[in-house]
Structures are given as C-alpha cells and as structure tokens.
Design a protein that fits this description.
- The chain has about 130 residues and is an all-alpha fold.
- The chain has one domain (about 10-125).
- It has six helices and no strands.
- α1 (about 10-25) packs antiparallel against α2 (about 55-65) and α3 packs across α6 (about 115-125).
- The longest helix has 20 residues, at about 10-25.
- The two termini are about 30 Å apart.
C-alpha cells in the first residue's frame, strides 16, 4: 500500500470542520410546527445563519490542497464508505485523478457522510486514532 501524502492531521482538521458544517446544515431548516410562535422551540444554536461562511471555508480549504491531496481525499472517502479496499489505495487515488471534474470541495461536501467516511478511511489505512473526535 502506498503512503498517504496528505498529512493525517490535515484530514483530522477537515473532519472536524466538515462535521461542524454538516451539523449546521442538518438544523438549518426547522419545519413550521404551527401554533403560537412564543410556544415553539427556539432554533438550534448551530443553525446556519446569513453570512456564515463555514461551508465556503471548508470548500476553499479542500480546493486549496494540491491535486494529489485532493485525489487522496476522494480516495479516502471511497475506501471509508466501502467502495474499495485499503489494498486498492494507489488505484483509487489514480482513479480520483482521472475522474476529476469540477471543484473537489463541492463534490466531497455533496456527500453528507464524507467526514465519517474520511475517518473510516483513515482507520482502514492504518491511521487509527487520528480520526477520533476531540
């Protein structure tokens, strides 16, 4: 198996950043329960607010990585979600490079479980402990 070029600490930081973005997006739409607005629950604190640039920041961080690092993030997601085995790492990185179309950050954040997939991928590649939550 080829080594991960991308620093595992960078992946860990991205996992935390993307989990925060996904948490905001999950709570961003509160359905109208009807009734009296005073009696209704207050919105969750992590709700997306106008001007919150967390998602854009995560995308820019990903897109600011080198092409090989971006391909590794894609391959890591694929391995983490079970599309490939760790022994196929080099092939998955090559495939990610060959199939690259458009911004990688948008592609990756289009997958709601990407942070968990990265964590699982790191573990599958033998970087246990690096993906644990802080």
């Amino acid at each position: 198996m080829d080594e991960l070029t991308l620093n595992p600490d960078t992946v860990r930081a991205l996992i935390l950043k993307v989990r925060a973005v996904m948490a905001r997006e999950e709570t961003a739409s509160t359905p109208d329960p009807g009734g009296n607005a005073i009696d209704d629950e207050n919105p969750v604190a992590l709700q997306d607010l106008p001007g919150d640039l967390s998602r854009l920041d995560a995308i820019q961080t990903i897109d600011g990585l080198s092409p090989i690092e971006q391909a590794e993030l894609v391959a890591l997601m694929w391995i983490g979600r079970g599309d490939a085995e760790p022994a196929e790492w080099a092939d998955m990185v090559r495939m990610a490079q060959e199939q690259h179309e458009g911004p990688t950050g948008e592609y990756l954040l289009g997958h709601p479980l990407v942070a968990d997939d990265w964590a699982d991928g790191l573990e599958a590649l033998g970087y246990a402990g690096i993906a644990t939550e802080a």
